[in-house]
Design a protein that fits this description.
Radius of gyration: 24 Å
CATH topology of the largest domain: Rossmann fold
Oligomer: single chain
Strand content: 15-25%
Largest sheet: 6 strands, antiparallel
CATH architecture of the largest domain: 3-Layer(aba) Sandwich
Helix content: 25-40%
CATH superfamily of the largest domain: Alpha/Beta hydrolase fold, catalytic domain
Order of helices and strands: EEEEEEHEEEHHEHHEHHEEH
CATH class of the largest domain: Alpha Beta
């Protein structure tokens, strides 16, 4: 067992294969199994947050493998305590009341904001192999300070279909700085208020930034490939046309078993080809190979992307250039 974060079963004292660790409000500590339910190898993020009543807390999010392990363990151990161990000290040991199936944990206690920030940083410490750079991504790319490696970046065809720019949220505030002339130009480009409400946030948050970063990366002399994901399962129940936010993940990793809705043979065909592109890219730095359609580079082949559709991948110009150009000019003005 390494230092860092682990989730472990609390057991009776002197249980074989267990060890005693310090624990808050437990003068004699607690005994926990040495084998972890999940550890930092499965951790995606640990961050300071708030819990019930606005109290300081720590939110943990684990990957799919970790979520499966935690789900199976908690389902089989209702009424047992599970300890959160950080650097060989028990942070908390809560009773399991129900199965935890989404890979998320909220750690609450008598923490200050500073303590939650420090603890979250300690949990993440073993994941950080490079220094953290506190700099805006766009500024880093514009200055040529991004990593000099090949890049895949892209978005889905219906990312934020449920959000409108009039919503009271950080996303809804993105267009607040538009001038009257800019807003009029945007409404014209989107075909009126209905089209603007339906598509502008997806363009503002995902589509234009993806194109912009790919262009900067290519300008800096590095390969950049843009994708647009538009594979939609026949059984997908959401009331919109297009691929919603994050729905490409089970295709990229060929893990359709994790899909929130049923999939069919078409979905498996697209998952196979997407995983082939990504694994080739991971192995060689270039997603192209075999007899797959060629995925063009941004810059070398103009503003082109590879669109993943129900009928297979298709190389095409990046769509809605007029809308994205307006957003690029708007961001250039307000940055």
């Amino acid at each position: 067992m390494t230092a860092g974060l682990s989730l472990r079963r609390v057991v009776a004292p002197d249980t074989p294969g267990a060890e005693r660790l310090p624990a808050p409000d437990e003068p004699n500590g607690l005994w926990v199994e040495r084998e972890a339910v999940a550890d930092e190898e499965h951790l995606i993020i640990a961050q300071a947050t708030t819990g019930q009543g606005g109290r300081s807390a720590i939110g943990l999010r684990f990957d799919e493998a970790g979520a499966r392990r935690i789900g199976a363990f908690t389902a089989a151990n209702i009424g047992v305590r599970m300890a959160v161990v950080v650097d060989d000290q028990i942070l908390t040991a809560a009773w399991i009341r129900a199965a935890i199936t989404d890979g998320s944990l909220l750690i609450e206690g008598e923490f200050t904001v500073e303590e939650t920030e420090s603890l979250a940083a300690r949990m993440m410490a073993n994941l950080w192999t490079q220094p953290l750079i506190s700099e805006d991504v766009e500024a880093a790319f514009a200055a040529g300070r991004e990593a000099p490696v090949p890049l895949i970046i892209g978005s889905n065809s219906a990312e934020f279909w449920w959000m409108k720019p009039s919503d009271i949220s950080p996303y809804g505030a993105i267009d607040d700085a538009m001038t009257p002339d800019e807003r009029a130009a945007f409404l014209a480009a989107y075909g009126g208020q209905e089209g603007y409400d339906a598509y502008v946030l997806s363009d503002l948050v995902f589509n234009e930034p993806a194109r912009h970063l790919a262009r900067l990366h290519a300008k800096n002399g590095h390969p950049a490939h843009v994708y647009r994901f538009d594979v939609v399962s026949a059984a997908m129940p959401e009331p919109h046309a297009g691929a919603t936010h994050a729905s490409e993940r089970q295709y990229v990793f060929d893990t359709l078993i994790t899909s929130p809705w049923p999939t069919a043979e078409m979905d498996q065909r697209q998952a196979t080809v997407m995983a082939d592109y990504w694994t080739t890219f991971a192995r060689t730095g270039n997603p192209n190979g075999a007899d797959r359609p060629v995925w063009p580079e941004v810059g070398a082949d103009g503003d082109s992307l590879l669109e993943f559709t129900n009928d297979g991948p298709v190389a095409r110009p990046i769509p809605f250039r007029d809308r994205l150009d307006l957003i690029e000019a708007y961001y250039s003005r307000v940055r």
